[in-house]
């Protein structure tokens, strides 16, 4: 990644971690929850249209549950995070904590109902709704973070932007791309590669763990990341108070 101010580097790194987690969540949801995406809403909207048209062998209830829960999570995040930000509270950490808790709870429900089964019952809308709710909350967290080119939940726009920018190749007098272009390219590449890496990771987790424990592990990773961000925030505040 190009040499960035510390704040920009931290923001990009945080969004990269969350992008990987999104890929892992969708790997678990698509492969074990009945071909439904809990992060990639575009896929669910298409599945919903297929179901309403009577084609594609996708029950309308499953896609509708995911879309509705995602929207509810986004609304919850928008209201809660805005309130926390207005009171100068650590809204980013709170958003991550809420997401992690929802993923852990959804994994616990799946584990309690299905044990180590390779797939959750396709009518288990509680698990689908819980995971989609967590991803809707994530969407609001990422929007408020506002790192250009890193929405953490989708990669198609980032891929198109990266390809277009590489083909245009704006160069400086010394034959190098301008610094702001290198920054943008690194973000787009991190988004595409992050989703891919997360999909691989989520699939690997499913083999030994099953969907319930995989969701718990992913949720625990989010909570650990939230704790690390909180500690880093406290340290920066402490250093600021000393200077």
Which descriptors apply to this entry?
Growth Hormone, Chain: A; mainly alpha; 7 helices; 243 residues
Write structural notes for this entry:
It comes from Streptomyces althioticus subsp. attaecolombicae. This is YoaK family protein. The protein has helices spanning 6-32, 41-53, 60-86, 91-114, 125-145, 156-168, 179-242. The protein is mainly alpha-helical and 243 residues long. The chain has one domain (6-242): Growth Hormone, Chain: A, CATH 1.20.1250. Helix 3 runs antiparallel to helix 4 and helix 4 (91-114) packs antiparallel against helix 5. The radius of gyration is 19 Å and the shape is globular. The model has no long low-confidence stretch (mean pLDDT 84).
The topology string of helices and strands comes to: HHHHHHH
Dominant shape: globular
Structural class: mainly alpha
Number of strands: 0
- How large is the share of residues in beta strands? under 5%
Number of helical regions: 7
Main sheet properties: none
| CATH class assignment | Mainly Alpha
Query: What is the gyration radius calculated from CA atoms?
Result: 19 Å
Beginning-to-end CA distance, first to last residue: 30 Å
Query: For this entry, what is the oligomeric state of its chains?
Result: single chain
Low-confidence stretches: none
Examine the secondary-structure arrangement and name the CATH architecture.
Answer: Up-down Bundle
The mean pLDDT is 84
Give the number of domains: 1
Helix percent reads over 70%
CATH topology: Growth Hormone, Chain: A
Keywords: Membrane, Transmembrane, Transmembrane helix
Organism: Streptomyces althioticus subsp. attaecolombicae
Protein name: YoaK family protein
Pfam family, one: DUF1275
